[in-house]
Amino acid sequence: MSSETKQILTTDGIPLEVSLKKAERKNKIKAFLLVAPLLFFLIITYVFPIGDMLFRSVDDKMVTQMLPKTFKAMETWDGQELPEEEVFAAFHEDFIKLVEDKREGKLSTQLNYTKNGFKSIIKKLRRKSKSFEEGNYKEQIMSVHKRWADVEYWRAIKRRAPEFTSQKYLKGMDMYVNEEGKIVSVEEDRRIHRVLWLRTLEIAFFVTVFCFLMAYPIAHLLATLPMKYSNLLMICVLLPFWTSLLVRTASWMILLQQQGIVNDFFVGIGLVADDNRPEMMYNKTGSYVAMTQILLPFMVLPLYSVMKTISPSLMRAGKSLGGTPFVAFWKVYFPLTIPGIGAGCLLVFILAIGYYITPALVGGASGTLISNQIAFHMKSTLDWSFASAMGLMLLSGVLVIYWLYNKIVGIDNIKLG
Amino acid sequence: MALPKYTEPHYRIWHYIYLTICGAVFFFLIAPLFVIFPLSFNAEEFLSFSDGMKRLDPDAFSLRWYKDMIYGTKNPWGLAAKNSFIIAIFATIGSVILGTVAALGLSSRHMPYKGLIMAVLISPMIVPLIISGVAIFFFMAKAGLAATHTGIVLAHIILGTPFVVITVTATLSGFDHSVTRAAASLGSDPVNTFMKITLPLILPGVISGGLFAFVTSFDEVVVVLFLAGLENTTIPIQMWTGLREQLSPTILAVATCLIILSTLILVTAELLRRRSERLRGINR
Questions:
Q1: How far apart are CA A367 and CA B60, in angstroms?
Q2: Residues in CB range of B74: below 8 A, 6 or more apart
Q3: How many A-B residue pairs are in contact by the CB < 8 A criterion?
Q4: CATH homologous superfamily, domain A192-413
Q5: Which of the two ends of chain B, N or C, has the fewest CB atoms closer than 10 A to its terminal CB?
Q6: This prediction's pTM
């Protein structure tokens, strides 16, 4: 026997190590090929479109492309005094081309976003520009309307020169770039988006708290009852879980209406007068009540699955060592349920923060969330770039929470009933 | 859960308070569903209990709204139900195939970048629906698939696969891989092994994932609202429009049917879960 360690060979004479590595790589490729169809499907239909949203939210090429010569001529303009004749001439040239393509309306809409008052003066310019004579465009354009002779409006045009803009994000936080190029907030009474963000956070937070307070006792009961009873009670949790969201919202609309059963009950026990029935729907109360009931199963199920694994002998041990039941609960049982609490709270919070349907139906004006605003811009104002910006702001918030969830519970540990 | 005899009185009281709280929460969870049921048989056009109903007068009840749901003139429920079922069935098939195959790959211990890929695969479940809706709408509009059944089916496959991936991965976590090696050593090719050995064993997980995908599609309204044209209307869209515009008792008849459907799905899912636990030997 030789003393040197011989390489172990397979029957084909290839070193075992190499052969194993090859097999390993083959297995890796095999596993990846199985995942590949879904992965590529999702990347194309889902991940890229979210990237597309990012692009749309900062894209501002439209105006850049509508006034190419103007912006070129403006490059040397310092923005202090009215621009020189060559800028006016370039603007006139761009404008005539836009009128030919019938796109001057789009320009006026876009410029109006930057500064109010462009709509009417562009309309006027279109009418007058037909009788313009060649040369000296500065005089001719300025004579159309006094705003064309106002340097503020030319500065507003220049601000639209870059191809990318953060203005949609600023608008989502009720801020804008003012004439001096500084970022400032809009007036106090027009800060609608900040109100919405705060309300979304507030409703999501309190819905999570309510869900937790309600879910903890029943999850505990379900986990400690004998199987045959707990299975029966589990139906009370699972049936709403499997029932259509719209059906559950509809039932709350029936219950909470002014002539509804809840109000009837309050009148019946003399809590409120018959002619003074409170509005429980189309306001925040409606959103709170309906969302809490709808999201409750998402809190119960993770709590239950954690509590199920806690041995009852631990509580007995705690008590036998002299703790009162309360102390035993607080020192022994509660800490063991924290993973479940984390999972449930984050799940409910993530779901609540992006809620759309229920607030739209029972929330009224004071109970709607940021999602409703996104849908409004997608469907009504058609300001898709703004909807994208708000969506991405919401998404980044959710991703932070998602990351926390992964840290605390682990993505692989999600349980579905 | 009976209390031991030696329990002190104030703990006894506390225990009953606890049971009362639990009872109240269970009531809060389940009672709203049962309001719909009797009201859908209302003979009147109101959405509250009429005096006749409170007296249990048989004349106060009728099948009027169910008839309206089925035979009503220019009523959209027939088309909506047909669309909903077609879309949900195709979306379920797509989700189950893509999701199961991906779960098989993910469960392999050779899978590289497992965490990252898993995060991408289940992201449609975590990202708020409104954002998914906007993103999917942009894609479908570009691909020319907006307002088509195909577009909606694809959208629902996106939303449904995470559930299949999660349930099947969970089933596979207790899977004994030596049985597939045994099959391979006996000369079975991988496809045959999958069909004859693996699939029957993970079938409960596959079916319950499929049920989740079906319900997701059947109940989905946010994304469909962006995508659907008049021809592609579904039950959730009709309910949404109905609830926003005029709350007619016909909606309650539809809602009752949906509750019955969800009860059936719940029972199936529960039976499957128990069977799966029995098969995997985790019967507690």
A1: 36
A2: none
A3: 269
A4: MetI-like (1.10.3720.10)
A5: C
A6: 0.85
Per-residue pLDDT reduced to its tens digit, A375-391? 988 888 888 889 999 99
Listing DSSP states for A297-332 in one string gives HHHHHHHHHHHTTS-HHHHHHHHHTT--HHHHIIII
User: Tens digits of per-residue pLDDT, B50-94?
Assistant: 777 777 777 778 787 788 777 776 678 888 899 999 999 999 999
- Placement of tokens 């879980």 in the chain: A241
Q: Which residue of A has its CA nearest to B162?
A: A38
Number of structural domains (chain B) is 1
**ipTM of the complex in this document:** 0.86
B166 closest CB neighbour out of A45, A360, A416? A416
- Taking alpha carbons only, the member of A201, A93, A203, A76 closest to residue A137 is A93
**Domain spans of chain A?**
61-163, 192-413
CA pair distance A299, A208, nearest whole angstrom: 8
CA dist A393 → A171, A197, A260, A289, A306 (Å):
12, 10, 38, 27, 33
User: Which B residues 175-194 touch A at CB under 8 Å?
Assistant: none
